[in-house]
Amino acid sequence: MSLTILHVEAGRHLYGGALQVRYLVEGLAQRGMSNVLVCPQGAAIAGAAGPFCQQVHELPMGGDLDLGFVGRLRGVIRQTRPDVVHLHSRRGADVLGGLAARWCRVPVVLSRRVDNPERPWAARLKYRLFDRVITISQAIREVLLSEGVPAGKVICVPSAVDMAAYTGGCDGSVLKEAFGFSGNEIVVGVIAQLIPRKGHRHLLEAAPWILARHPQVRFVFLGQGPLEDDIRAQVRDGGLESQVLLAGFRDDLPSILPCLNLVVHPAEMEGLGVSLLQAAAAGVPLVGARAGGVPEIIGDEAGLLVPPADPTALADAVIQLLDDPVGRERMGQAARDRVGRLFSLDAMVEGNLAVYRELIR
Predict the structure, then answer these.
(1) Rounded distance between C-alpha atoms, residue 192 and residue 174, angstroms
(2) CA distance 139 to 305
(3) Count of C-beta atoms within a 10 Å radius of residue 112
(4) Range of the domain at 60
(5) Residue 320: other Cβ atoms inside 10 A
(6) Do residue 147 and residue 256 come from a single domain?
(7) Domain match, 248 and 260 both
(8) Model-level pTM?
(9) What is the 3-state secondary structure (H, E, C) of the chain?
(10) Do 110 and 199 belong to one domain?
(11) Gene3D superfamilies per the record (predicted)?
(12) CA 84 → CA 33, 48, 234, 325, 355, distances in Å?
């Protein structure tokens, strides 16, 4: 049975949730489904997902207070007559999108990608708008259940990684060309938006201990965000300008990640951690804070877990792996095997499609 799914994605850049939507619409199209995409004007996903969609509607999307978005989305729903509306974003798309779909009497699904707690009374009221809520990790599902959302409404379908994109191995010239490195450095990467909950400051606090043991380490922060000035100030105040590089957003991660020696994710809160999936797919061992869905990726074999917001434990874990190159290589292979087994594109697409079909039935 072919279905038409209307997807709403509010992200402007092609990473995180938006990248997952790109994977999903391609997988659905391969299975004979029809996709309609609603996204902000000028969003990168319009071009990336467009080939797999029958229609792409770039609409003004002004956030949670943009009440006019309800009417604009209603117009698209009435024009395209989808079987299901799938809301992939929280800010500016979840409540307003749910109201528009309800108004048009179309089944509506929400993807929940963050583990931020909500007030239980507000959560119970909000999630009445949605027929199903798809969480990208069991940790997020447990948050919703603790807030009183009915268990039968909340389905876990983990995010996925395109394993094939990270099979090329490391070209020895990549880091030299991208960052000016000589080739003698030990490169530790952090792949995350520059926002408070990603915990960059904890790694910067741990950095002096790590550098005292391994002075050839260079930390590369891949990502952008509102904390850039604060992080630069912390780097400067700590005398770390020559050891920490803020590299911004990169669209060449498949060539960069295989050349990293280690990826660290010091987040205080994390829905799952798509950047960890990407690093693991490239065979890079991981150090992550035991927050949200991060343990679901790292498990017992893909890396080391530490308490959140604990620079001392973070430094110890990083040093432990840097001291053991053989163990690090073994752990990197285990990381690749784990994410390939548990976070495949096919499993993610089939999981979402099963939710749509169950609603239609």
Answers:
(1) 20
(2) 15
(3) 25
(4) 4-160+344-360
(5) 13
(6) no
(7) yes
(8) 0.90
(9) CCCEEEEECCCCCCCCHHHHHHHHHHHHHHCCCEEEEEEECCCHHHHHHHHHCCEEEEECCCCCCCCHHHHHHHHHHHHHCCCEEEECCCCCCHHHHHHHHHHHCCCEEEEECCCCCCCHHHHHHHHHHCCEEEECCHHHHHHHHHCCCCHHHEEECCCCCCHHHHCCCCCCCHHHHHHCCCCCCEEEEEECCCCHHHCHHHHHHHHHHHHHHCCCEEEEEECCCCCHHHHHHHHHHCCCCCCEEEEECCCCHHHHHHHCCEEEECCCCCCCCHHHHHHHHCCCCEEEECCCCHHHHHCCCCEEEECCCCHHHHHHHHHHHHCCHHHHHHHHHHHHHHHHHHCCHHHHHHHHHHHHHHHHC
(10) no
(11) Glycogen Phosphorylase B (3.40.50.2000)
(12) 11, 22, 47, 49, 10
Verify that 174 and 323 share a domain, yes or no: yes
Q: What pLDDT digit, counting tens, does each position of 213-247 carry?
A: 999 999 999 999 999 999 999 999 999 999 999 99
Q: What is the pLDDT of residue 168?
A: 84
Say whether both 235 and 255 belong to one domain. yes
Q: How far apart are CA 238 and CA 228, in angstroms?
A: 15
Distance separating alpha carbons of residues 205 and 314, to the nearest angstrom: 9
Residues 1-36: tens digit of each pLDDT: 799 999 999 998 888 889 999 999 999 999 999 999
Q: Mind listing the pLDDT tens digit for each residue in 56-100?
A: 999 999 888 899 999 999 999 999 999 999 999 887 789 999 999
